[in-house]
Write a structure and sequence with these properties.
The protein contains eight helices and 14 strands. It has a seven-stranded mixed beta sheet with strand order 4-3-2-5-1-6-7, sandwiched between helices. Strands 8, 9, 10, 11, 12, 13 and 14 form a seven-stranded mixed beta sheet that branches.
């Protein structure tokens, strides 16, 4: 029965077009449904913009970024990994990064609207508590979807569904999780994320010497640069776009960025992760503590 519901909804969305946002806890099949909607959209002759805002388990572009993929043919669906546009968030979790997540997603939805008549927004699995509800509220506010599809196994989405219906005019539909969706273990998710970072730091890597003036947020002159060693950065092009990821390296009193996308680099945005460009393991950090030595 749920297979028919998924198929019918995907066909209806493809026929209607517009902007649809998919929400749900981890392992509820948001990306699978997005793929099904896009397949139907291609068959209906739609131009499609896929905004992948699941920064922890990215399909489009590297982790810690929101990616846009423009989909025109069935062949495009075979490999969605290459982003047509990218915005740096700086973390694989929305905690402490709600503003960056919301702005990055809304910016790429606006870009997608200009070149596509069907926009599909895939979101993180953060749906509970203050962080999850705040994140989804502000994404609704700025992305302005005509339709929200909430995937749920029980009643876990009811608080968010109720909030969205109360505060926004968009149509909000609930859908049971597709029976073919299989939960993935935390270990497998971690391994998948590590492989994604490995791809983001694939050879050839270059080391560029950088000055404190190229960073956002700005680095104070008195900061011990050793505190920045291993910090994840977004490599920026000067027009708000992210070219890819980099990792800072401090040795012999020199600060460098290790990246494979240095050409066109105009600045660096600091993230809230440390990453080892060799084994690609990441560690979450508090950027405020790194910059100022305390948290408040």
């Amino acid at each position: 029965m749920s297979e028919q519901l998924h198929a019918q909804l995907a066909a209806d969305i493809a026929e209607t077009g517009g902007v649809v946002m998919l929400v749900g806890a981890p392992d509820t099949g948001k990306t699978t449904l997005a793929h099904q909607i896009m397949s139907e959209g291609i068959r209906s002759g739609r131009s499609i913009g896929y905004v992948d805002a699941d920064v922890g388990q990215s399909t489009v572009g590297p982790p810690a970024c929101v990616g846009l993929r423009l989909v025109r043919t069935a062949e495009d669906l075979d490999d969605l990994s290459t982003a047509d546009d990218l915005r740096f968030v700086g973390s694989t979790s929305p905690e402490r990064m709600v503003l960056q997540q919301v702005l990055a997603t809304a910016t790429l939805v606006d870009v997608a609207r200009r070149s596509a008549d069907l926009v599909v927004i895939d979101t993180t699995g953060a749906v509970s508590g203050v962080v999850g509800q705040t994140l989804k509220y502000h994404k609704m506010e700025l992305c302005r979807p005509e339709l929200v599809v909430a995937l749920q196994r029980g009643a876990e989405m009811e608080p968010i569904v109720g909030m969205l219906r109360r505060f926004f005019a968009a149509r909000v539909e609930t859908l049971p999780v597709h029976p073919n969706v299989v939960p993935v273990s935390p270990e497998a998710l971690s391994e998948r994320r590590q492989q994604a970072f490995a791809k983001a730091f694939k050879a050839p890597l270059e080391r560029w010497r950088v000055r404190p003036t190229v960073f956002a947020p700005t680095i104070s002159a008195g900061l011990d640069f050793a505190r920045l060693d291993g910090m994840l950065v977004g490599v920026q092009d000067g027009e708000g776009r992210c070219l890819g990821l980099g990792a800072l390296q401090y040795e012999e009193d020199v600060l460098r960025v290790i990246t494979n996308c240095g050409e066109g680099m105009q600045g660096l945005r600091l993230g809230s992760l440390r990453v080892d460009p060799l084994d690609h393991r990441v560690q979450r950090v508090n950027l405020r503590e790194v910059m100022f030595g305390f948290d408040h």
